[in-house]
Amino acid sequence: MPRHRSRLIVARSSQESRDEFRYDLTTANPMAVQNMTDAPRISSADELDRAITHAPLFEAVKSPRLKALLEETLQRMSGLGEDAESQYQRALAALRNTGGEALDALAQEFERLAADQYVNRWAVVQLLTDLEDPRALDALNRIITSPLPKERSDDPHGSPAARELVVRTTAVEAVTRLAAGGSEEARAALLKYVRHPVRSVKIAAALAYAEQGGTRARKELRKRMPKSDYWILEIRRVHPQEIPPIEGHRFLPPKSPPEAVTAPRPITGGQAATKTRSGTTTIPRSSGRRREPGTTPAKPSGRKNRKTRG
Predict the structure, then answer these.
(1) How many Å separate Cα 82 from the centre of its chain?
(2) Whole-model pTM above 0.70?
(3) Which of 119, 202, 238, 297 is the most buried (most CB within 10 A)?
(4) Residue 192: is its pLDDT beyond 80?
């Protein structure tokens, strides 16, 4: 039986300069994965460009059944297709049925992974998030409060600190879901995080706490937060349609409100088209004058159009 290995498959679009990532835990041959996306294409199918092999996951899990469930759930998490979400939810349900075993295994796996195994570390935290089990709160607290690694790269896309920041904000999302589910311990944790030394974690926690408790929560936040952080409470989620349009490659408010577009009115009554004796159709032209509101229309002059006989 082939040994399961953790592979991060990377496919590059032939038309766009972008990479798409997916875990492949069921095969040792990365070339078996050919179609990496179900998005519409305007060209030939994307082709596999390269494969990055990561350290095997869940090697410390003793139970073969639990290990298989963890690997399957991780694979389903990055699945594609119409039934991908339903398959992922079924895999999560199977993990929940293991009781606290899956939570303990995920927490231990996170501690075991090296700091440079960013994708694997994030995947483990995302599984903890989607399981939505209050018993994971202690492990999530340890992740959020652990210090960020020192910056060792000038490239923002390859920054270890930035990557680990994503891991911690994902853990904040996990605590937010627990608070939304009624966990008072999770709500208390969010309130504690508003004094976190990392600004992104602090913002995520403050906004989540405010959304959970409304006006009363905002008052509690003001008591806990320093005045220099009150601006965080002014941040709000907006619909994409509320974002100002892009003008000159910069986000600027529109210079003038958009013009109202009205459908042309049909020609009725006295404005109906008439046919001349020659067979041509004529439509009366507008005088070009605009009547101001509150004024009466001008009286007709009494002169009639004369028709010339052909």
Answers:
(1) 19
(2) no
(3) 202
(4) yes
